[in-house]
Amino acid sequence: MTGSIEKRGENSYRLTVSMGTGSGGKRKRYRKTIRVQGKTEAARMKEAEKELAKFVAEIEGDNFIEPSRLTFKSYTNKWLDDYARPNLAPKTIYEYERLLELRMLPFFGHMKLNKIKPVHILDFYKALQREGKLSNNSIMHYHRLLRKMFNDAVKWQILSDNPVVRVDPPKTEKPRVQYYDEEDIDKLMKALEGEATKYVCAILVTMASGFRLGELMGLQWKHVDFENNTIKIEQANQYLPKEGTFTKEPKTDESNRIIAMPEPAMRILKIHEKEEKEKRLNCGEKWEGDDNFEENFVFTQWNGKVMHPSTPSKWFNDFLKRKGLKKITFHQLRHTSATMLINAGLNIRALSARLGHSNTSTTLNIYSHALKSADKVAADKMEEIMFGKGTKKDAK
Hints:
Elements: E1 2-7, E2 12-21, E3 27-35, H1 41-60, H2 72-87, H3 90-108, H4 118-130, H5 136-155, H6 182-191, H7 197-209, H8 213-217, E4 224-225, E5 230-233, E6 236-240, E7 244-248, E8 257-260, H9 263-283, H10 311-323, H11 332-343, H12 348-355, H13 360-366, H14 368-387, H15 391-395
Antiparallel strand pairs: 1-2, 2-3, 4-5, 5-8, 6-7
Helix pairs in contact: 2-3, 7-9, 7-11, 11-14, 12-13
Organism: Tepidimicrobium xylanilyticum
Protein name: Site-specific recombinase XerD
InterPro entries: CB (IPR044068), DNA_brk_join_enz (IPR011010), Integrase-like_cat_sf (IPR013762), Integrase_catalytic (IPR002104), Integrase_recombinase_N (IPR010998), Integrase_SAM-like_N (IPR004107), Tyrosine_recombinase_XerCD (IPR050090)
């Protein structure tokens, strides 16, 4: 086996390895172009030599795939195995696999990865708009996934360039955040009277805390502190068709948090706890929850088994129809909580921590509507402070 390094540009080198024989007894050659960093030629050559050693190891271990022969489908399998499955949450992997199988593999699967050009990406987006009748917001999901996959191909030195970055993403409209205002909340509270305690509890706790639905469904009684009126978030429940309902770590490190709760919300939670304990006694041997009550999930089925994560959402949707209330999703109770707190004057840093966002920019981006409204209130307040009450009235 022999290996050589050929300089192709300031930071570009071509690696060549000769190993074994092919058809006709000819020596097999493997080539790969790389880009390296280094302030001096000696430093860059040293990095190239390291890459040559890795290249040889790949070939000897039968792990090298000739870029000119690598199809998008083959690369997809490699990307899922080497990046997605070891690093991403199960739900994210499921969504990526769905996008790939539904439209990306049928379109790109047969194509050689290094032959996919910006024009092919554009054709794909046009096909999605024409045949799939997808909105630009939906197409953006495909764009982000393609960009990430090709970025990794460049990083792994399978490709020298990412064709997706040369394509303008589809223009999207920022979805308007839906929420309940104070009048809507008042109607909701009245409509909840007489409804099943566990669903009333799920709605009020979510609106009071701003929990994500998965976080709510991941709550166990050991996370509830009735003495200090707090709830601890350290896990979330999700459902996937292939896995069923499972418990995972929260979305981000910042999602691990302890939330102070209003006392009325804790009262309804206490009533729900009492009903859950009675349910356990009534079930007897049919109880499928934990013998230690503290280890049981707060929201369960009739026999103590963990509730499907989407059940409160489905119940809430049916409830709003039944009561003729303004339609919002269960997740938008979280938006309602955040919007009301902004309007009440809670600062963004405190709100971001309460919601479990990884940074305040996420909070600012999602709740810009509420901040504009709060800013108008602030302007009116400053008018009152500076010029006295009734300024607008006096001007008429």
